[in-house]
Write a structure and sequence with these properties.
160 residues; flat; mainly alpha
Length: 160
């Protein structure tokens, strides 16, 4: 693997982060003109809770998966890659689903409505998919795909 490819991949990730942050800022700026501040506060709170919960309970599975995926790809072992991918995805989805179930079961103690708790639970349960998929693309250094998907999703969110 050449240094040039690693640097180019890093630049794609940097551009993705900058564009995503900027488009996210524009989104919230535009949204504040359509909805009351309390709605934006509730949305920010829910996003924060989901982000915090998924980062705590991910157990750094994406970092470990990225390392293992990269190692087996470096050796050209596609069969092991399939095994590691399936295991990582199953483990991550199991953990996230268990946490989502706990949030759903104990969510009534927080004072939020059942619909809010259900929404948070679903977001947490689905949080495992992007972490493992992103780990796979990171390990292949196809970060341009991640950057373009991030920019397109942020742009689509802004348009909608």
């Amino acid at each position: 693997m050449s240094l040039n490819k690693v640097l180019r991949s890093s630049l794609w990730l940097y551009a993705s982060g900058i564009a995503s942050s900027f488009l996210g800022y524009l989104y919230w700026l535009l949204a504040s003109g359509f909805v009351p501040p309390s709605t934006i506060g509730d949305a920010a709170f829910i996003i924060g809770i989901v982000s915090l919960t998924t980062s705590i309970f991910s157990l750094s599975a994406s970092s470990g998966a990225t390392r293992m995926f990269g190692k087996v790809l470096g050796h050209g072992d596609r069969k092991s890659l399939n095994g590691f991918f399936a295991y990582s995805l199953a483990l991550t989805l199991s953990i996230y689903s268990a946490v989502a179930l706990l949030i759903f079961l104990f969510g009534s103690l927080t004072g939020f409505s059942r619909l809010d708790i259900l929404f948070i639970s679903v977001l947490v349960a689905l949080g495992g998919w992007p972490t493992i998929m992103t780990a796979l693309y990171y390990s292949t250094l196809r970060t341009n795909v991640i950057a373009l998907a991030s920019i397109l999703s942020s742009t689509l969110r802004l348009v909608l």
